[in-house]
Specification:
This protein has 2 domains: about 350 residues, Pectate Lyase C-like; about 70 residues, Immunoglobulin-like. Strand 44 and strand 45 form a beta hairpin. It is mainly beta. It is about 0% helix and about 50% strand. The chain starts with a strand and ends with a strand. The strands form 5 sheets. The protein has a 15-stranded mixed beta sheet that branches. A 12-stranded parallel beta sheet has the order 1-4-7-10-13-16-19-22-25-29-33-37, with no helix packed on it. The chain has a 12-stranded parallel beta sheet with strand order 2-5-8-11-14-17-20-23-26-30-34-38, with no helix packed on it.
Length: about 425
């Protein structure tokens, strides 16, 4: 099926409460604002969509995606391939399922993604994203969406006709533009897990004033927490000594967010909290592993904080909890703004007697450097105690150290400087 014209559709239906079934169909369209499918809801399987759309009149319009499922009932799109289009697929139906598809976006305008996810409580899984130019998935003011077991290959894009100084391409964007907590226009309750991300940054030397940015996550949500966990992220900045940017997490104009147990390998700073996009409040980064990639050319700190581009780009109440760093120490490249954050470490205590036998159900008491009791707990069945404690807190120019800690059990007493995640053996006499 072929179509070629301005504002053309290969398949269009205005029928409400009718689910269109498309199976084993190949559609090719070309022209400004052209789309392949424009229907309320659909079940799409084993289809191929080739869309040559060099430009669109309205960059905000989801109706200009190659396939636009604009109804409120659920849709399913599976085992299909999308080539071209400013954006590939937009859907609005709650409880939709998008899985086992291949997306090759060709985006030259802003606000178009391989997938625009606008259906609450939907699932996006087992898809492959390889945009020629462009981004992966945007979740804007929607909730309860699960994104898992996908693979993303995202490259920094050249400048566009609209943005010729700074432009980002992102595997996943979570956004609600400053929504208040619990707002019906908030982006929260979404979960992104077990995905693979391959992010490539580069400098376009023919555009020396242009700063391209590529990221796995652009997080600008404030209506409530989203969870990002168990993902594998590889960052390769091809021009690490240039001003080109590449991040695992680009966080700004945000409040909340739980980012935990992700594995990141990078040759440049992979995390920016309170980026040039705005402030970041109460972000939690916990249990993530950040590793320096092989053959890295430059020294870098794992975290960047704040931006001199605007006074509002301040980190407030950020928590770094028990993260692991390979090939580098934990450190923050921060601006002189009044940031506030705390650093926590994991402490595991193995209790045993002089014969080496573990001691279950044995009470320990932990006090901070000021002598304040912070933990009173009995060991588990294997004789261990596993806890997370703050090492220090930063509030503007003030640093408050809470370590070292004193561990007491009966008449036994030992001190531990909690400057890393630590395992200690404690002999109980």
């Amino acid at each position: 099926m072929c179509s070629s014209d301005l504002l053309s559709h290969a398949i269009q239906s205005t029928a409400e409460n009718v689910r269109i079934i498309l199976d084993n169909i190949k559609i090719s369209t070309s022209g400004i604002n052209t789309t392949a499918v424009d229907v309320e809801q659909a079940v799409i399987t084993n289809c191929t969509f080739n869309v040559e759309n060099p430009f669109i009149i309205n960059r905000h319009g989801a109706e200009f995606y190659a396939v636009d499922l604009r109804g409120t009932q659920s849709s399913e799109v599976s085992f299909s391939e999308f080539y071209g289009g400013q954006g590939c697929l937009a859907f609005r139906g709650d409880f939709s399922a998008i899985h086992h598809n291949y997306f090759v976006n060709r985006q030259t305008v802003t606000n178009h993604y391989s997938i625009m996810a606008m259906g609450d409580s939907s699932r996006i899984f087992e898809n492959l994203f390889k945009p020629e130019i462009g981004s992966g998935i945007e979740v804007y003011v929607h909730r309860g969406i699960e994104i898992f077991n996908n693979e993303f290959h995202i490259n920094a894009a050249p400048p566009s006709c609209e943005y010729h100084l700074h432009l980002s391409t992102n595997a996943i964007r979570l956004a609600d533009y400053g929504a208040k907590p619990g707002s019906p226009r908030g982006c929260y309750g979404n979960r992104v897990y077990n995905n693979k991300f391959y992010i490539t940054g580069k400098k376009y030397k023919q555009y020396p004033d242009y700063i391209p940015m590529a990221s796995a996550f652009f997080y600008s949500a404030s209506g409530g927490d989203n969870e990002i966990f168990g993902n594998n992220i590889i960052i390769n900045q091809e021009d690490p000594e240039s001003d080109a940017e590449a991040f695992a997490f680009y966080i700004g104009n945000s409040r909340g967010g739980k980012i935990y147990n992700n594995n990141i390998v990078s040759n440049v700073t992979p995390v920016w909290v309170a980026c040039s996009y705005g402030s970041a409040e109460k972000t939690i980064l916990a249990g993530n592993t950040i590793s320096r990639s092989r053959n890295t050319l430059i020294d870098f700190k794992p975290v960047r904080m704040g931006s001199d581009e605007g006074s509002g780009s301040v980190a407030i109440g950020t928590e770094f909890r028990s993260n692991i760093f390979n090939g580098m120490e934990f450190a923050i490249d921060e601006t002189g703004q009044q940031h506030s954050y705390s650093v926590f470490r994991t402490l595991k205590i193995n209790l045993h007697d002089k014969k080496g036998s573990s001691l279950p159900d044995t009470e320990i008491v932990i006090t901070d450097k000021n002598g304040k009791d912070v933990i009173r707990q009995k060991s588990s069945g294997d004789g261990s105690v596993l806890i997370e404690l703050p090492e220090y807190e930063i509030n503007g120019n003030t640093k408050t150290n809470l370590s070292p800690y004193i561990i007491k059990s009966g008449k036994n007493r030992t001190s531990v400087d909690l400057n890393n995640n630590i395992v200690i053996d404690l002999l109980i006499k």
